[in-house]
Each structure stands twice: as structure tokens, then as C-alpha cells.
Amino acid sequence: MSLNTEEKQSLINDHQAHPTDTGSAEIQVAMLTKRISKLSEHLQNNIHDFSSRQGLLKMIGQRKRLLNYVKEKSEKRYTKLIGKLSIRG
Fold this sequence. Notes:
CATH architecture: Orthogonal Bundle
Distance between the termini: 24 Å
Number of domains: 1
CATH class: Mainly Alpha
């Protein structure tokens, strides 16, 4: 499930560090989180869609790697991000 332009722009505006920031790790994690939630909803209705399930697992792995990167760079940014997105418990 892809995001439309309005959804992407609102995520960028919510998570950007400065006015020209469009691709920082925080924004990428936010976009992946939104796509993961949409795809999870899709898979609850379509339980035999195995190719989408595989894509979901890849997105979860990518988000985990990006979160580890943010955590290595700044613990403060990491805790703020997971609180804002309400992930990780």
C-alpha cells in the first residue's frame, strides 16, 4: 500500500528537522510506519496475500535498521521519535 502525496507531505511537515528536510531518518521511519499500518490492515482482510506479507516483513526490517541508526546517533531523537509514532511498546 503506497501513500498518496497529501499523506507524504503531512508526514514530512510533522517530522522534519528544518524547512528543507525531506529525507532524514525520522521522516523515513514515519513513512514506513504509515505504510506498515496500511499493509497490516490489508493483510487482516486478505490473509492469503503472501507476497504482501513478505513486503511487510521487509519494511519492518528496514524500519528497524533506521531506528537503530537514529538510536546510535542520538538517544534523545530516538525516544522522541518512538513516542511520537507510538511504536515499541
